[in-house]
């Protein structure tokens, strides 16, 4: 009989969420872009949200949907865009769930010790910018 040892991974904390939120906003501010940032825990529950004063209103919704999509599929939303196009293998995925997914760059899963612990979504800039801001945030958290 073999035994497998599992090591507990520290979940995403509110302090982690604030680090992610602040780092994404700093990156966006440096680029001169107003954004909304959403951080979800591994269960999809909201840990942090912030919409810059002048960010487009829809960015709040897009940042949340991007985070949710990245969490549910454990993949950057930027990597999923081509998969859901009409000729893509997962074209029906956009309408398959009760909660809407959003396949626009700007959502990233957050991992700790190789395990999924949450996700971040950024909305308000161009998709490539949002992806860059989310990436900067995840890298900042990993460096701590």
**pLDDT averaged over residues:** 93
The total strand number stands at 4
Return the string of H and E elements: HEEHEEH
Helical content (DSSP H or I, runs of 4+): 25-40%
Q: Beta-strand percentage?
A: 15-25%
* Radius of gyration (Å): 15 Å
Sheet with the most strands, sense and barrel status: 4 strands, antiparallel
Task: Count every helix, treating DSSP H or I runs of 4 or more residues as helices.
Answer: 3
Q: Could you give the distance between the termini?
A: 39 Å
Residue windows where pLDDT falls under 50 for at least 5 positions = none
Shape: globular
Name the structural class: alpha+beta
Strand order of the largest sheet: 2-1-4-3
Show the helix and strand layout.
Elements: H1 14-31, E1 36-41, E2 46-51, H2 58-73, E3 107-112, E4 115-123, H3 127-142
Antiparallel strand pairs: 1-2, 1-4, 3-4
Task: Describe, in plain words, how this protein is organized in 3D.
With 144 residues, the protein is an alpha+beta fold. Helices cover 35% and strands 19% of the residues. A four-stranded antiparallel β-sheet has the order 2-1-4-3. Strand 3 and strand 4 (115-123) form a beta hairpin. The longest helix is centred in the N-terminal third of the chain and has 18 residues, at 14-31.
